[in-house]
Amino acid sequence: MNKVKWIYAIVALALLATLLPTGSAQAAPASALACSKTYTVSAGDTLSGIADKEYGSVKAYWPIMAGTNLKNKEDSSFAHIENPDLIEPGWKLCIPSADDAKAFLAEFPGPNTPAGVSMLFGKGAKGQLIVASWWTNGGEFAGLNEMFKQFKAANPDVEIVNAAIAGGAGTNFKGQLLSQLLGGVAPDTFQLHAGWEADTYDPGTLIVNVDDVYARNKLESVFPPTLLNMLKFKDHYWGVPVNIHRSNVLWYNKALFEKAGITAPPATWDEFFAAADKLKAAGIQPVALGGKDGFELQHTFETILAGSMSAEEYAGLWTGKTSWKSEKVTNALNTFKKYLTYANADRDALTWAAATQLLIDGKAAMNIMGDWANGQFISGNFTDYGWAPVPGTKGTFVALSDSFALPAKAPNVENANLWLDLAGSKPAQEAFNKLKGSICARTDCDYSTYNGYLQSAAADWKVDAIVPSVTHGAAAKPSWATKGYADAVTLFATSGDVAAAQTALVQAAVDAGYPQ
Length: 516
Ligand code: GAL
Hints:
about 525 residues, four-stranded mixed sheet, D-Maltodextrin-Binding Protein, domain 2, about 45% helix, alpha+beta, globular, binds beta-D-galactopyranose, 3 domains, Membrane-bound Lytic Murein Transglycosylase D, Chain A
């Protein structure tokens, strides 16, 4: 790195430090990470092992990652470390002195904050682009990486910083991001569901509208009206959508169905339970269910609700038109209760991805999950699966959409805008969604090289009744979705008390402003 860039890096990091909330760590000056020596990775090395050797602590690998990435900007013979768990033999690392490493660690706020992760990377001539999401699983990361590749090719002078925080459906991400934004620390762009979720971030205060991105890219003419309706919140657009996901999908392992003598996927709950009994009798675990990410139960129940009433009635649950006192809600609770008896007992230990893996490994036969599971099958090279709408939901598409938002305090606004332009573009959406397991937000994508599931989802989107997902930010105000509704469902999954759960769901609707 030449002198000017060093000064730039020092000034930028110092500026970043001023953005940190009071009481939190301040960014260390980059100059503190000069290399005291170099190290070439050998087979079997791990970054924490090297840190242990150098500094006597297996946890002290961050300064090595940061020092190496900074050095890489001036001398590309040094490695570029994107993930500290993935280093390769032959890579040249920069080892800062023990004092520098200690100083860095004292200032490092941790890898789960935009400011912290920014410290781990160098800066391009045009700075960084800090992208925050919860996409860390196979298909999720593969899709995101396609967008990174396109961005890098078009903007080689910008260093991309992947500020992802693991946890399905943003379970860890949303709370952490909100407290960072409230503390004045922001990434350049972050994952935001279309719909009510924007309300989490006090639109107009913590995030700014992206209407101008829509205008300059003429996005209103390339996204379907249903999606535009979902995206428009308080008269503005707050995110540029990259996809449309479907939540109400029943996935099944074909070989296990065959083994149990099941010839067609169940279309009704009676058929579902008959199939589950056959699987059980054949010694096969009927249902795979996760719970660790804290959204899987609510997700499953929303799809059962959607299958217990018409699409219009289901949508009406979130607008006050359908009463939660309805007998159809009682029926949905009873169905859910029965469904849970066919699931693995260790659901709280499994993420959605781990539950999906049970299907891939042939250890369970069925799973209700959004079509990011399809992305997981693709990344796991698993093709022996089938799909069907969750029983009772044929003709209904429970929809959600991932978009990218613009924080008011984005440190690299120009780069953020370049990212938003890319996110709405056809090439980015075609490459991203093919691996992510979703369909494009745009109506002009070419699906000819997409897999069979995605082609069917694209066809269903055109003819089905589209209703919004509550678990994934679209249908209801955040406090209702993540507390009132979510708490009632989570408690019910343990208690099994139908009447109490329905009372809690009714109360949640009342609390949300919809008298029942
Ligand atoms: C959803 C998100 C998807 C997928 C899923 C599991 O909320 O919209 O893109 O990532 O969570 O993490």
